[in-house]
Specification:
With 172 residues, the chain is an alpha+beta fold. The chain has 3 helices and 11 strands, in the order αβββαββββββαββ.
Length: 172
Amino acid sequence: MKALLAVVAAFFLLLPLLHRAGLRFNPTPSLPKGIYRIAPGAPERGDLVAFCLESPVWTSLARERGYLGAGSCPSGLRPLLKRLAGLPGDAVTVTPDGIQIKSAAGSAHVWLAPARRNDSMDRPLPESSLRAGVIPDGLALALAGHPGSFDGRFFGLVPLAGMTRVVPVCTF
């Protein structure tokens, strides 16, 4: 028991150092749980990305309901890890079954994960901020395939400049 306690304590003491070294921990089912590393280069469609939630409405809700733990973002919450699904110029269509994203080049992808009206504890959610239309310059859509993911289906588009590529190091 003492050994386990020592390992847990060491992990939490090392966490700030690991964060400075570019490592991020994902404890949620949105993506495989594990450790991810910040990667060089501009994010591209399909990349895993880390970013801070900026919307006051959704940041407040995430804090109040415990969707996101404490972290390094200006809001005091931890960054989200998602997949970069839509880029500026892409057309987004929102249906009851999910989200279709058609790139400017013509390829299309359907995310079969519709926005829900209630969270996993059956609490009502605000109306989704995501709207159908063309993604404007400077913004992007971040999603996860998990049906319960707290992602762009709810908080909408986020600044592309605030996204950082990440790659898995160790997942479980």
